[in-house]
Specification:
Immunoglobulin-like, five-stranded antiparallel β-sheet, 0% helix, 128 residues
Length: 128
């Protein structure tokens, strides 16, 4: 698990390798990740959007931007957590992801960026 705190917002990410399968005559490596967002600040905040950079050892970097996370824009009061799971497919057994969440502080009405630390995606059978 990797963890990082930005402006009182703690992001923790754990990953899992789910297996391989064929799609369009190519092998794909499936990974899931679970993200926990914990508000350790004194203000209520809301997650508005996300930005991901997905690194695959056999492909170019894929950039994904979108509203909220899994169709939600969670509001977190001080001390609250929000956890969600998602996944990605890679063409190789090795990769990584990193990014950020765009959030708004309800007290100051300012938007700010919360860093999602880089986390590795690796199939256990491919490690020596």
């Amino acid at each position: 698990m990797v963890t990082q705190i930005t402006r009182g917002i703690k992001i923790s990410v754990s990953t899992s390798f789910e297996g391989t399968y064929f799609k369009n005559y190519k092998i794909h490596f499936a990974f899931t990740y679970e993200v926990t967002i914990e508000n350790q600040s004194k203000d209520s905040v809301q997650l508005n959007s996300r930005h991901w950079e997905i690194y695959d050892s056999l492909n170019d970097i894929e950039v994904v931007d979108g509203e909220g996370v899994i169709g939600k824009k969670p509001v977190l009061k001080p001390g609250e957590k929000h956890t969600y799971s998602s996944g990605c497919l890679l063409a190789s057994p090795f990769g990584a992801m990193r990014g950020y969440f765009n959030m708004i502080n309800f007290t100051s009405t300012r938007t700010f960026r919360v860093i999602i630390p880089t986390f590795r995606l690796s199939a256990p059978f491919a490690l020596n």
